[in-house]
């Protein structure tokens, strides 16, 4: 089965709400390119290194053709490597939140979702009982989320307020 490839922001967001294991529950193994590992470890590196060590299902994968990431020069290195790796490995899913990278992924016809999409899938498959508390926990952790996106996701999850 083709791999699932994840960018830095979803890792940080899911770790912040202690839900990183949802990735394993939903997808089994998840790949991150080397640049994403580096970005993830920039802040709080010792604790985040332990997080990766405690999550052996998150595998760091180097690009076969590192120069291919340069194709996406307007993106940061992690996003560029996520897209390049997704193309190299014919990924079944790319988990990425940043708008510019999502536009590239869309143009490349890569299947994608973001952090909220992962949480929605977790609710739909019975791994979460409610989405709203997880979104609130992300916001309380300082993560910025688009209000319209939150409304749409909560509506789809059947948790829209009347």
At the first level of CATH, the class of the domain at 4-115 is Alpha Beta
Strand element count: 5
CATH fold-level label of the domain at 4-115: Rossmann fold
Q: What is the straight-line distance between the termini?
A: 41 Å
Helix content: 40-55%
**CATH homologous superfamily assignment of the domain at 4-115:** 5'-nuclease
Spans of at least 5 consecutive residues with low confidence: none
| Biggest sheet character | 5 strands, parallel
**Structural class assignment:** alpha/beta
Global outline? globular
**Judging by the overall fold, what is the CATH architecture of the domain at 4-115?**
3-Layer(aba) Sandwich
Q: Encode the helix/strand succession as letters.
A: EHHEHHEHEHEHHH
**Spatial ordering of strands, largest sheet:** 3-2-1-4-5
Mean pLDDT: 95
Structure, described:
By secondary structure, the chain is an alpha/beta fold. The chain has a domain at 4-115: Rossmann fold. The protein contains nine helices and five strands. A five-stranded parallel β-sheet has the order 3-2-1-4-5. The chain is globular.
Mind sketching the topology for me?
Blueprint: E1 4-6, H1 8-16, H2 21-27, E2 30-33, H3 34-42, H4 45-53, E3 58-61, H5 77-89, E4 93-95, H6 99-107, E5 112-113, H7 115-124, H8 132-140, H9 147-156
Helix pairs in contact: 1-3, 2-7, 3-5
């Amino acid at each position: 089965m083709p791999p699932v490839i994840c960018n830095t922001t979803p890792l940080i967001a899911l770790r912040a709400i202690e839900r990183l294991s949802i990735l394993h529950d939903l997808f089994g193994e998840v790949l991150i390119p080397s640049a994403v590992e580096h970005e993830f470890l920039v802040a709080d590196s010792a604790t985040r290194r332990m997080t990766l060590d405690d999550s052996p299902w998150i595998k760091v994968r180097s690009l076969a053709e590192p120069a291919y990431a340069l194709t996406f020069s307007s993106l940061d290195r992690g996003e560029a490597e996520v897209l390049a790796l997704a193309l190299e490995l014919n990924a079944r899913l790319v988990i990425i939140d940043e708008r510019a990278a999502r536009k590239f992924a869309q143009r490349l016809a890569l299947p994608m979702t973001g952090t909220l999409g992962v949480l929605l899938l977790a609710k739909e498959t019975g791994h979460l009982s409610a989405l709203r508390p997880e979104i609130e926990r992300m916001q309380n952790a300082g993560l910025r989320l688009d209000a319209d996106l939150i409304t749409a996701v909560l509506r789809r999850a059947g948790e829209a307020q009347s």
